[in-house]
Structures are given as structure tokens and as C-alpha cells.
């Protein structure tokens, strides 16, 4: 399949997943609106229709909680109850929280990495490059800005009471990299209490259960949901009582970049100087926090288990957090690029393509078909490509993009790919995979020029 066909198929995938103003993450496995999926989807949609891309973020922001949290799922009331677990009825009691917005019975009580401000800025850049629809996008940004600011403030305060610059998560689902070895030892420490009987509906949507998290992991995921529901999603309570409490370096790195994007949006909408001062401080604190979590032996950044009081050692893509956040430290950037291209990651000669596996094949937790434990994720390829471009590593970025696009020429738009064989795994027609293909193949990539 050539570029034109990829564009046409990607547009078709997004059209078919369009639920009328918002996009489901995939046709059957994920019939709802996921937070960070929507942000990546908006980045791709911008290449088709900037107003529709803005609408994607706008719909999600309507469900923002009163404390600023953007929920990780906005449930589709029309999706059949047997399509996804845990669905809205399972989350209902958590959204009985004083922070929940009206209509919150349609959201989960968790959150996901904050790609949204990056997407909002991207939409403006695309509109500007096209000279089309700019007034409408400025209007959208004026409405979105206070919400995005409140979202980042929530992450910088309620999710970082220590002022460490790093975001605390209560559940691996909040990291977006659910069963990654990043969380293995922290999850092992969680003692599962009484959980309701549940059915793994996800397993009915994939050909092989090995592509999804294990029963052991799911029991812990569901038990943690029980704890979060019992705490009515109260951040202070969870920080005292949650058996799973971790500083997430990937989310924190994305937040640094999202704050840079928010600063630009703040200029555009004429936000108060006080806001900008806060945003600048969050950026600085975020970079400092990542510096604290740098492991010189591994040449990677590590998450931190607040319960055990120790770093969570694993070789995963999250370790490249300083590359994603952007670092002015030349030596650190060189180390990260060396590790990225080493045998542990893209330099492994057995890989189907030199694309970063979600977990290094050298890690004990690696498993080539299992979700975030090894497969290559096109959406993460986009994040790495974008980070390399932003770091001035244009040649490396182009190489990565070419390989990633070659992989997508199968036309399947897989959720993730087996790293050694290139087989598409998980869900096909995954929206964020289609979205990143569209962004890569855009005639003019304004983000590339303007990073
Ligand atoms: C996956 O996570 C959900 C739970 O949130 C699941 O497995 O049911 C993850 O890949 C997550 O990062 C993603 O946002 C979501 C929808 O694509 O699926």
C-alpha cells in the first residue's frame, strides 16, 4: 500500500470510528472515548478537518471534573453493556465524588497522560499553515485554555503534593502502558482483597489471550479500581491509602511538553501573566523531577514506587522520558540516543524493523506478543519521532518515521505489532494508529517546521 492508499484507509478508519463529534478508540475492543487516544486522534484529524479535530478535544473537555481532572474514559451510552469491562455501571459509585461534574456517570475516575495541550497547539499550527479556519480555532482555544490550565494545575498539585515535578498515579491504567514491566514489582506488592465477579470482555475481541494482560494483572487492576471507588477518587485519601502509588516518568515528561504547548496557547488567548509564571515553573520543576529519576547505570529514567520508597527498575520506552520532555543536557541526550540505538532497543538485529519495542527484549519482563510488554506501538513511534524532531535529531526522526510508515503499509492499523515478525496484534483499525499515519503523511507537517 502506497502513501495515498494509507491516507485514504486511515481517513476511512477515523470516519468509521467517528461516533458523531468524538471517536471511539477502536471498533470493538474499545467502544468509548479514551483521554490520550482522543488527543492523538485530534492530531491526526487536524490533517483532515481542523474544526472536527477541535471538536474531538472539546467533547472530552466537557466531561472534565471540578478539580481539573480529565477522565481517562468518557463512556458511550450507546455501547452495549457487554462490550467493555469495567464500564459506566462499574464506575458509578466513584463518580459520586464532590469533584465529579454533572453527567459524570459517564466517566471513569482515573486519568491518563496529558497529551491534550500538545494536540490543541497542533490544531492551531495546522490551521495557520493552511490559512484556513483560524478564527474558529482561536475561539476554540479561548474556551479550551482555562480547562487545559485547570487540568495541568490538577496534575501539578493534587497529583504532586510533594512538589517533585513528577505525577503520581494510583493505577497502571493511568500510565496508559497498563501491563508494562514498569509496574510489575509495585503490582506484586498489592494484596488483592474482595473483588466482584467479573468477565474479561476484552479477551473476546482479540484472537489470542496472550496479547492482553494476564488474569493475575487484571485481578490487581480491578482491586485497585475498588480501592479508588471506595475513596470516591479523593486524591488525599488515595495518597494515604492506595497500595499502588507511583511517580510516572512518561506522564511527567509528556506534561513538560504539554506545558510548553500550553504556554503558547496562553499567548494566543492572552491569558494572565500569573498563569504563564505558573506554567513556566511547572516546566522547570518537571525537568528537575526527571533529573532526579535518572539512572546513570541503565542510561534511562526510572519510575518511582512511593509505597516501597524505591525506583522501579525496568527497560521500557518510558525510560526515554528526558528525550520526550526535551533536555538541554547534551551528554544526557547522547546517552539516551545511544541506549535507544543499542541492542536493548532499536539496535537488536532480530527486530522486524528498527522501531522501539515497548519493553526491551533484554528485560526479564519482555514478552513479544503481550501488549505493553514488548510489542511496537505505532502511536509511541509517533511520540519518539516527534521528540527526536524537537531535539533537533532530524535524520534519526526521518529514519524512524520511514520504518513506522512501512509497517503501516499493511493497511491494518494495528493497535501494536510483534517486534520480530511485524504481525499486527490487539485491535485492528485502532484510531490513534490511523491518526499518526495521517500526521506523518501530511503534505506539509507544520509541527515539524515549528518545533
Ligand atoms: C488500553 O487501556 C485500556 C484501559 O484504559 C484497556 O486495556 O482496556 C491502553 O493501551 C491505553 O493506553 C489506551 O488508552 C486504551 C485505549 O486505546 O487501551
Give a brief rundown of this model:
The chain is 47% helix and 5% strand. It is mainly alpha-helical and 451 residues long.
Beginning-to-end CA distance, first to last residue: 30 Å
Query: Approximately what portion of the residues adopt beta-strand conformation?
Result: 5-15%
Number of helices: 18
- Approximately how much helix is present in the residues? 40-55%
Question: Which blocks of ≥5 consecutive residues have pLDDT under 50?
Answer: 444-451
Total beta strands: 10
Name the bound molecules: (2R)-3-hydroxy-2-(alpha-D-mannopyranosyloxy)propanoic acid
> Per the principal axes of the C-alpha atoms, what is the gross shape?
globular
Order of the strands making up the biggest sheet? 3-4-7-8
Mean pLDDT: 95
Estimated structural class: mainly alpha
The arrangement of helices and strands along the chain is: HEHHEHHHEHHHHEHHEEEEHHHHEEHH
* Major β-sheet annotation: 4 strands, antiparallel
Rg from Cα: 20 Å
SSE topology sketch:
Elements: H1 3-16, E1 33-34, H2 35-45, H3 50-61, E2 73-74, H4 88-91, H5 116-130, H6 134-156, E3 167-169, H7 172-175, H8 184-188, H9 215-230, H10 235-241, E4 246-248, H11 249-269, H12 273-292, E5 294-295, E6 300-301, E7 303-305, E8 310-312, H13 321-325, H14 330-340, H15 378-390, H16 394-408, E9 416-417, E10 424-425, H17 431-441, H18 446-450
Antiparallel strand pairs: 1-2, 3-4, 4-7, 5-6, 7-8, 9-10
Helix pairs in contact: 1-17, 2-3, 2-5, 2-17, 3-5, 3-6, 5-6, 5-11, 6-11, 11-12, 15-16
Residues 25, 30, 34, 36-37, 72, 173, 176, 178, 202 line the site of (2R)-3-hydroxy-2-(alpha-D-mannopyranosyloxy)propanoic acid.
